[in-house]
Amino acid sequence: MKIFIFVFLFIGKSLSEEDPYSQFLNFIDDGNYIFEIQYYQEQFGNRYEYKGNLYFTNSSYYTFDGLSQRIIFQDGEITTINKIDQQIILDSMIPGETTIFDILSGNRNSLDIGQVILEKNGFRINFRLPDLELSGTIWTIPQIGQPREIVLNSGLESYIKIRIVSVRSLDSDKLDSIDLSQFEIINLRE
pLDDT tens digit string along 56-70? Predict the structure, then answer.
């Protein structure tokens, strides 16, 4: 009887709380964060690794700043500042294109949420991007929905992983300015 009561209370409490993906979206929707991230990408046998800060204001404006580059996404426009080669590349997103940063920013339109599993260190939320034949996983902290890691798989030898090292309020840190007066501008927008 005690086991039945415990199970009933646990299920009742679980049903009354938000699901883990909604917690994640609510955390993201509260906005104005600096995510210290480690970004890994493997594609066709090549491995890339970047570390830096993702300054997140909302789903249509965010900036990744690392040692060698700064990438600014604003309303579908992408500006990549190559600090080493002193180049600015202007580009536009392809309509319907989804990036790993869109997933981190809570882009709801293209995800099919799958199984959610409670693990020792938090929730594992599996998802699919059926239009792009991609799948992935978001790991979050229970009750608050803060992301810990996001993985996007696009094939046997291709994946992207973002590990979130820390999260702090955007109000506590500002992005350093870069003197762009000597940078070459390359415009790839159509």
Answer: 887 778 899 999 999
